[in-house]
Structure formats: C-alpha cells, structure tokens
Design a protein that fits this description.
Rossmann fold; two-stranded parallel sheet; 52% helix; binds NADP nicotinamide-adenine-dinucleotide phosphate
Length: 261
C-alpha cells in the first residue's frame, strides 16, 4: 500500500473488549479500516456493524488465540492481503498475573509471558520486515505503568510488561531509519474487565472509552510513549529515580494497601 490516499488499516489484538475495543471505536470514528483479533467470536461479530456505523469503511475479524503463534501469523497474512498492507499494528491482548511469596507462580508467569510478551513479539516480528520493505507503518504495544518497577505480588505481570516495553524501545531505535514508527502505551488503571477483578483501590481510575481515544490518537500520531491517566506520567518519573531502599519500603507498605492486601 502506498499509505497516501487510503485510510489507515489498523489491526488490533484483544479487540473484543476493554482497551482494545475502546481503541477500535476511536479508530472507527477517525475513518480507519479495522482488523480485529480476539477469541470471543460473538463479541467481535457484534462490533462489525457498530464500528461500520461509527465511520469505519471496512471491518474484518479473525477469531483466534494469539498464543497460537502460527494462527496469529496466518491471520496477519489475511489482513495484509485484504487491506493491501496493514498500516498500524496494535499489540494489546494481555492478562494480569501474580507471583506471591507463598505459592509456586510458574503457571501464572508462563501464561502471562506467553500472551503479553511472546504473542506480541510473534506478531511484531512477522510484520516488521514487511513494514521495513514498504518504508512505512506503525507498531504499537500496550505495556503498563507496572513495567517501571517490580510491583509487589506482580512478578509475572511486571516482568511481562518490562519485557514488552524494553523490546518496543529497541525496535523504535532499530526501525526509525526505515520510516517505521514504534509506539509504547503505558496505561495506569483503566476501567475494564481486567481491573474489575482488582480488589484494592485504583487511584485515578480512567474510563476505558477515554483511554481508547487517547491511545488511538497516540498510535495514529506515532507518539513514542504515552501514559494515561496523566497523573501516572509523574508517578513513572518518580518511580524511576527512587533508590531501591526507598522503593522497597513504599512497595511493601503503600502499594500493598492499594492492591487491597
Ligand atoms: N485495564 C488496565 O488498568 C490496564 C493497565 C495497564 C495495562 N493494561 C493492558 O492493556 C491491555 C488490555 O487490557 P484490558 O484491561 O483491556 O483487558 P480486558 O478487558 O481483559 O481485555 C483483554 C482483551 O484481550 C483479549 N485476549 C485475552 N487473551 C487473549 C488471547 N489468548 N488471544 C486473543 N485475545 C485475547 C480479550 O478477548 P477474548 O477474551 O475475546 O480473547 C480482550 O479483548 C493488556 O495488555 C493489559 O495488560 C491494562
């Protein structure tokens, strides 16, 4: 695709619900063509007429588990053909995962890394050479504020988000000379099915629709790093510079309280 006279062709993983669905709505309002990936067919099918009505000229779906790496690559091939090139790839599908001191966390860690890291990298690496050959495109990944420091009881989740953030940063530098943009999205607390399972308090909790709008704009603009709600941008700056001794004390007392412990 030449990328000049056609609307963006945006493919989103984890598009059936939560932040992915909210981003799809925001992209549709901006006239983007959409490729939606998730496991729940009924949710994806219901989205097709909704997004068309909102302004998307073309909405296609692929029902699959993105940890089926071959199936994900086949779906991306399909979208590449149907859209004559994916212009924006948004790697959003993710789960939270814990690792507590009293239990063997291996299963959680493996599930979390398989989805949050390996599935995302599987898709990014598949699309990377094509975008480089076209000298255009954007790869965006949904990381988290949890990537910045290891959060208590969140060894699985923090590890996965630190991995995706670091990967996206390397990719951003690598792909810049080829005209391919890389976008990192770092949500704080957003109201979705994922946070509905949280029992602690969630400071500055943001509506999914608002987050979707902010993140979709960041993807279309090719912004390098976007945090929302905005208060977490400050938290990230502070967390980054806190010495370990201070961080450990805060993590043990304050953050456990936030998480309802
Ligand atoms: N909500 C927050 O506060 C928050 C904060 C920081 C980061 N994040 C990140 O934002 C992203 C989206 O989270 P969310 O809160 O929107 O979660 P969510 O409401 O639980 O939605 C997750 C989406 O991912 C899809 N998904 C899950 N496993 C999948 C799989 N194996 N294959 C394909 N699709 C799969 C789900 O669809 P199906 O079930 O239909 O497959 C759903 O569409 C995640 O990467 C999460 O870590 C969220």
């Amino acid at each position: 695709m030449d990328g000049k006279n056609v609307s963006p062709a945006v493919v989103i993983t984890g598009a059936s619900d939560g932040i992915g669905k909210s981003m799809a709505i925001a992209f549709a309002k901006r006239g983007a063509r959409l490729g939606l990936i998730a496991r729940r067919r009924e949710l994806l099918e219901a989205l097709v007429p909704e997004l068309t009505k909102l302004g998307s000229p073309e909405v296609r779906i692929a029902v699959l588990d993105v940890t089926d790496f071959a199936a994900q690559r086949a779906a991306l091939d399909g979208f590449e053909r149907e859209f004559n090139g994916i212009s924006h790839l948004v790697l959003n599908a993710g789960i939270s995962g814990r690792a507590t001191p009293t239990a063997d966390g291996w299963d959680d860690i493996r599930k979390c890394l398989e989805l949050n890291v390996f599935a995302a990298l599987n898709a990014a690496e598949w699309m990377k050479p094509r975008m480089v050959a076209r000298k255009s495109g954007t790869i965006a990944g949904v990381s988290s504020v949890a990537a910045i420091r290891g959060l208590p009881d969140s060894g699985a989740y923090s590890t996965s988000k630190a991995a995706i953030s670091t990967y996206l940063e390397s990719l951003r530098v690598d792909l810049a000379p080829f005209g391919v943009k890389v976008v990192t999205i770092a949500p704080g607390y957003i109201e979705t099915g994922l946070t509905a399972r949280n029992h602690g308090s969630m400071p500055f909790l943001m509506k999914s629709e608002e987050a979707g709008r902010i993140f979709a704009e960041a993807v279309l603009a090719g912004r390098k790093f976007t945090v929302a709600p905005w208060q977490y941008a400050w938290l990230i700056r502070i967390l980054r510079i806190l010495p370990n001794a201070v961080y450990d004390r805060i993590a043990a007392r304050f953050m456990r309280r936030i998480r309802g412990k």
